[in-house]
Design goal:
Formate dehydrogenase/DMSO reductase fold; two-stranded antiparallel sheet; 4 strands
Amino acid sequence: MEFDLPLIWALLIATVILLYVVLDGFDLGIGILFPFLSSESQRDVAMNSVAPVWDGNETWLVLGGGGLFAVFPLAYAVVMPAVYAPVTAMLLGLVFRGVAFEFRWKTVRWKRVWDWSFTLGSLAAAVSQGIILGALVQGIDVENRAYAGGWWDWFTPFSLLCGAAVAIGYALLGATWLIMKTEADVRERALALAWPTAIGTVSMVGVVSLWTPFLDPVFMERWFSPPGLFWTAPVPILTALTVLSLGVGLRRGCDIQPFVSAQILFVLCFVGLGISFYPNIVPPSMSIHDAAAPDESLSFLLVGTAVLLPIILAYTAYSYRVFRGKVRAGEGFH
């Protein structure tokens, strides 16, 4: 029995990237919301709510980037020159955010500086990730198996819109995380912030979703013409139901429902991207089979991943279990 190893690896890489988005998204969102929290005490509680898990959440980014390089080297070689600038901005943002996470607890005089470093680093990382996504969705010029575009091809209205959409969406994840993990004034403030970020996220998802099919005739056919329409219709239907669930959860002041709904919304958006892209890994013309490493390499790497991935999943699940429950003022893990 022969396995389609490039397809298996494409699904694995997609899953790893999705895990990064849903796990690191909410702590990036907390950084984005930092200036909107009312007091230093509220900011301390918000940061303590993600202190035990934020570093581990970034494991998935390393795994996704390393996996792409090892498994789809041609895609890596084409995509990286196309998005060097936003990738560099993202990495610098993550560095500043990580340093601020540690240093703000060690100083009094410079605490506001590190607060702003945390915010700006989180915002830079979120916007850069959205711009990278937008640049990929709008298509990358490839000639003779190499990037053929210019330095600024990533800088377009669509990619900037995607950058704003991801930042607002992460802010929604951060707000709903705080609703679930905090209480008293912090929770009330998070609930107040969740409404505008929810409205902004849903609006951005709608605009990006309507714009995307016009970027490529294949996208248009897949989403708006039969028979593809019948296969893709469940995604917008489920998205509408998820938005309804998010609104109901926020209106009722539920702890868990808003966060779960926001996460499902991100998953559905990711599924929509997968439907648009398949079988390409670099739109509009490079397929997963064109970009994949030899089957021997894919098989070897798959064995290692079969051992490593369950271990990462296990310690991630364990850390969330250990630090479950509400975070209160004066308590923390820093």
